[in-house]
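Hello Y.,

Per our agreement to keep a running log of every chain we model this quarter, I'm adding this entry. I've kept the format consistent with earlier entries: sequence first, then predicted structure.
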Amino acid sequence: MNNSKTKEFVKKIFIEYLEKNKQRKTPERFAILAEIYSRNDHFDIDSLYFSMKEKNYRVSRATLYNTMELLLKCNLVVRHQFVNNIAHFEKTFATTPHDHIINVRTGNIIEFTDPRIQKIIEETCEKFNIKLLHHTLYIYGESKE
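Predicted structure for the entry above:
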C-alpha cells in the first residue's frame, strides 16, 4: 500500500472509530494522524509537537495527548516504553512487523525482523484463538566492550 492509500485507509478507520464513540472529527485530529503517518520513526509527544509547529500547524500539547489516546484505542499507533520514562509512539499500519533491541547504555534502538519470531507469535495466537493485531518484543542489553 503506497503512502497516500495508507493515509486514506487509516483516516477511514479513525473516522469510523470517532463516529462509533461519539467523538468530534476535528481538523487538528486529522492533521495529527497525517503527520504520524508521514513519519517512519519512533517519536514522543514533544518531537511531534515541534514537527507540527515547524509546519505551521496550530495544535496544543493537550490536543496531541488526547488524540494519541484515541489513536491508541483504535490501534493506529502503538506506545513504547524503551529506556527512560518518556513514552514513544509508532504507527501500526504500513510498517513491517519488527522488534526492538535497546542498548541500555547508549539508548540506541535497533529494529530487526526475524520471521521465526513472527511465526511463533502467530502460532501462539492461533493456539489460544486470538486475533493478532500487532506485537512488540523488547530485548534490553548493552554493547560488548
